[in-house]
Design goal:
By secondary structure, this protein is of the alpha/beta class. The protein has helices at 102-117, 133-140, 152-164, 179-189, 214-225, 247-258, and strands at 2-3, 10-16, 19-24, 27-32, 51-55, 61-65, 72-78, 81-87, 123-127, 144-149, 172-176, 195-198, 203-205, 211-213, 235-240, 275-287, 294-307. It has six helices and 17 strands.
Length: 310
């Protein structure tokens, strides 16, 4: 399990009865978490949250606010760089940051930094990029990033986070676009990227009503997107919050697509150059304060490319 345990401004304080109590800077929120199927005794901290998201039995839910500003900031420290995020509670329990992703930010930051330190440029494509945590980590490491999300509001929010992080002048392309259509156009244009990050939703609809269902859409999308990898690729990262896509599924998919026959789209061109994808998969987790337990919060598949010996 990859544990996001370097946060100073965020912490899971407790878990019980389908909910988790979190501190986000000076504020405490209670939010639903489907992984919390157990019940524990709730201490005093649970009695005075700043906000509580109540899930509805009919689906969705709503916030109950007690003492919470409309917006506030928290930071995350990477080596030599502090990322700053603008938080605000909005639809379906979210605040604008998935804190477990910090484990992936650190991983990608290290890989990109090692390459850029040697004087080699890195181009990163971040798909379904949300409010830009992965984009900011990659930009802070020296990469040129293309940030793509279908939501205009999310892209605007990501830009705000870049400004707050002192990265407003970083080489980032901010694009509001359907991810699949963008990838198809990039293939036709002949563009390539050294690293690809994707954080696809479980379900969604494109601007023209296209249905995205991750169980049936992710494999053809990976097959399509791998065609954008450069001749000297660095990594390929997939996140999953869907119960059906366990780490083993992500690993099998990445290995088959990047190292195997490649399915209908065929193998990547870099296979002819003796490049191999070394794949790791695992759960992402957050430590629960004072218990020694780790709360699972999704899965990730990571592929790092290496030159094979001839």
């Amino acid at each position: 399990m990859w544990i996001a345990d370097n946060w100073k401004d965020y912490q899971v304080l407790g878990t019980s009865g389908g909910e988790k109590l979190e501190s986000w800077g000076p504020y405490r929120l209670i939010r639903p978490d489907p992984q919390v199927i157990w019940t524990e005794e709730k201490g005093k901290a649970w009695k005075k949250p700043n906000a509580h998201y109540h899930r509805s039995e009919k689906g969705g839910g709503s916030w109950e606010f007690f003492d919470l500003p409309e917006e506030w900031k928290i930071g995350y420290d990477l080596p030599g760089k502090r990322l700053t995020f603008n938080l605000k509670p909005f639809a379906f329990k979210h605040t604008g940051v998935f804190p477990e992703q910090a484990a992936n930010w650190e991983w990608s930051y290290r890989l990109i930094s090692e390459r850029t330190a040697s004087g080699r440029p890195v181009k990163v494509l971040n798909l379904f990029a949300y409010t830009g945590g992965a984009t900011l980590a990659a930009a802070a490491a020296g990469a040129a990033v293309t940030h793509v999300d279908a939501s205009k509001g999310m892209v605007a929010w990501a830009k705000e986070n870049a400004v707050s992080s002192g990265l407003e002048k970083a080489p980032v392309r901010w694009l509001v676009d359907d991810c699949r259509k963008f990838v198809e156009r990039e293939i036709r244009r002949g563009n390539h990227y050294d690293a690809i990050i994707m954080d696809p939703p479980s379900y969604g609809r494109g601007p023209d009503g296209e249905v995205w269902k991750i169980e049936t859409s992710i494999w053809p999308f990976v097959e399509l997107t791998k065609q954008l990898l450069s001749d000297d690729p660095l990594f390929f990262l997939i996140n999953s919050y869907t119960t059906g896509l366990q780490p083993g599924v992500l690993g099998y998919m990445l290995d088959l697509s990047l190292n195997g026959d490649g399915g209908a789209a065929g193998p990547c061109a870099f296979r002819k150059s003796g490049i191999h994808a070394v794949i790791e998969t695992g759960e992402l987790g957050l430590p629960v304060a004072g218990t020694g337990r780790i709360l699972p919060e999704g899965a990730a598949g990571r592929a790092v490319f290496t030159k094979t010996q001839s």
